[in-house]
Each structure stands twice: as C-alpha cells, then as structure tokens.
UniProtKB/TrEMBL annotation:
It comes from Serpula lacrymans var. lacrymans (strain S7.3). This is Uncharacterized protein. The lineage of its organism: Eukaryota, Fungi, Dikarya, Basidiomycota, Agaricomycotina. Coiled coil: none annotated. It holds the Pfam family KAR9. GO terms for biological process: establishment of spindle localization; nuclear migration along microtubule.
Length: 282
C-alpha cells in the first residue's frame, strides 16, 4: 500500500466519528422539533376542549332561560372560531404524522440506531399515541356538540311551528264553538223543554247572537272561510311536525309530549268540524 493510499484511509477513518456525530446532532434536533410541535398541538387540543365546554354552557343557559335570541349569534361565532382551530390542529397532525412516518414503520428505519436513539424514538411514539387519542376524542366531542346544536335549532323551529298550529286550531275551535252555540239556541228555541247549555257556551256569553237567518249566514260564512284556509294549513304543518319527530335520532320529552297533544287535539277538532258541517246543513 502506498503512502498516499494509507494517508487517505486514515483520514477517512478519522472523519467517520465526526460525520456520525453530526448526523446524530441533526437527528436530535429533528426529534426535538417534532416533540415541540406535538406539545403545541396538545395545548391547542386542550384549548378546543375548553371552547367546547364554553359553548355547552351557553347552550344550557339558553335552555334554562328559554331565550335563544341573545345567545344564538354568540354560539354561531364561537362555533366558527372552533372550526378554525380544528382545521389548524388537523393540518398540524398531518405534518406530525408525516414527520414520524419513518418511525411508525420500523422497516423503513435505519438498522444502525443505537439503544439511546431507540429509547428516544419510543418516547416520541408514545407521546404521539397520546396525542392521537386526545385528537380523536376532541373530534368526537365536537361531533356530539354539532348534533346537539342541530337539535337545539330544530327544537326552536318545532316550538315555533307548533305554536302556529295551535293558533290555527284555536281559531277553528272558536268558529266551531260559535256554530255549536247557535245550533244549541235553535234547538232550545224549538223545544218546549229547556236543554242543558253546552259547556263551551259559557265562555261565549258575550259572543252570543240572536237566532236569525242573517246571523246563521254570517256564522256559516266565517266557518267556511276558516275551514278553507286553516284546515289544509294545519294539516300541512302537523304533517311536517310529524315527519320531523319521526326522523329525529334523539327523542326530546317536550317534543314527544307536545306532538302527541297536538295530534290528539287535531283529531278531535276534525271530528267536531265534520259534525258541525252536518248540523249546519240541516
């Protein structure tokens, strides 16, 4: 072996420890950067959990007061802010997963890892596993929150629509009661024996009209007009409510109770309308 060749080999051997040390230092920096990023993501996830809790508190406040007007906008803005933070964490998780890909698939890693390096990688992977579990949990919490907020909005719509149906049924009931009161007066006038006054007539003393053809025509016209507009409208509204209740995954007690009451009330009212129709014709 020549002097030059020997010198070259010696020089190369002397560089090996230095090169390995440099690679080790770079690897340490990379692992530290990944670990730091995961810590930041963990803090962000904790912040998201706090914001979910705050939105839930707003929900409960709205339910206890029954006034959604003051908190709906606040909740919507909070939800938008929450979505932005979720998107940011999602991008961060993708970055971390890509950085850890060589360690998540051992077959792709270098075989020359030292015991210290393997220990560091194991710690990092455990930290990553905890982070992934926290991330999946907060996504589940967010999904639950979204479903609950959807349910809240639907309940608000349900109450509004049910009140509309109740209002139309009340108007129809009033028209039916007036017709029934008139029919009772006609029967009483044509009978020698006084008949017991119907219970609904007590509430209509101030509305009682004399028995005449003019009054009959006026009552019939009002009755027919309300039937024409309110019967199909009420049927449509109640069918919408019925479909909404049937399609809901969660079953709210108030919803089920009010739906059952409205359905029963409408069934009885339709029977009274049909009976009144026949009596007014005769």
């Amino acid at each position: 072996m020549s002097f030059v060749e020997n010198a070259t080999i010696t020089a190369n051997r002397s560089l090996l420890p230095s090169q390995k040390g440099k690679r080790k230092s770079q690897e340490d920096i990379r692992l530290l950067a990944i670990s730091t990023h995961m810590t930041e993501l963990s803090y962000s996830i904790s912040d998201i959990q706090t914001r979910i809790f705050e939105i839930q508190e707003l929900r409960h406040k709205t339910q206890s007061t029954g006034d959604a007007s003051g908190t709906t906008n606040v909740i919507d803005k909070s939800l938008m802010n929450l979505d932005e933070r979720l998107d940011a964490v999602s991008e961060g998780m993708k970055s971390v997963n890509e950085s850890l890909a060589p360690f998540l698939h051992p077959s792709d890693t270098h075989e020359e890892s030292t015991s210290n390096e393997l220990a560091e990688q194991t710690i990092l992977l455990r930290k990553h596993g905890t982070l992934v579990a926290d991330w999946e949990a907060v996504q589940d919490e967010t999904e639950v929150l979204r479903e609950e907020l959807k349910e809240d909005k639907w309940l608000t719509v349900f109450r509004t629509v049910t009140e509309q149906a109740d209002g139309m049924m009340s108007s129809l009931e009033k028209a039916v009661n007036r017709c029934q009161d008139f029919i009772w007066q006609v029967h009483r006038k044509g009978s020698d024996d006084p008949a017991p006054q119907p219970s609904f007539s007590n509430s209509l003393q101030s509305d009682k009209s004399p028995v005449s053809l003019e009054v009959f025509n006026s009552l019939l016209e009002s009755f027919e007009a309300k039937k024409k507009h309110y019967v199909p409208a009420t049927s449509k509204v109640l069918s919408i409510i019925d479909k909404g209740v049937q399609d809901r995954v969660t079953k709210n007690g108030e919803t089920l109770r009010r739906h059952a009451e409205s359905a029963k009330r409408w069934k009885n009212l339709k029977e009274r309308i049909s009976r009144t129709d026949g009596e007014m014709e005769t």
